[in-house]
Amino acid sequence: MNVGERIRAAREAASLHQSQLAQKADTSQDYISDLERGKHEPGLPILRRIAKALRMKPGKLLD
Hints:
The protein has a single domain (3-62), classed as lambda repressor-like DNA-binding domains (434 Repressor (Amino-terminal Domain)). It has 63 residues and is an all-alpha fold. Helices cover 65% and strands 0% of the residues.
């Protein structure tokens, strides 16, 4: 499972839409979509914001 798949799984487990996660992580819905589809790899700052929005540690998205 790659980072994008982990983000998607965590987002769905939190019952969030991509737009809701994007708002909480201060990024765009298009970027979240691209991450989940493996088009981009998140840098550490955005990974931290996504993890915080999902109420998890960033390392959990990298395991």
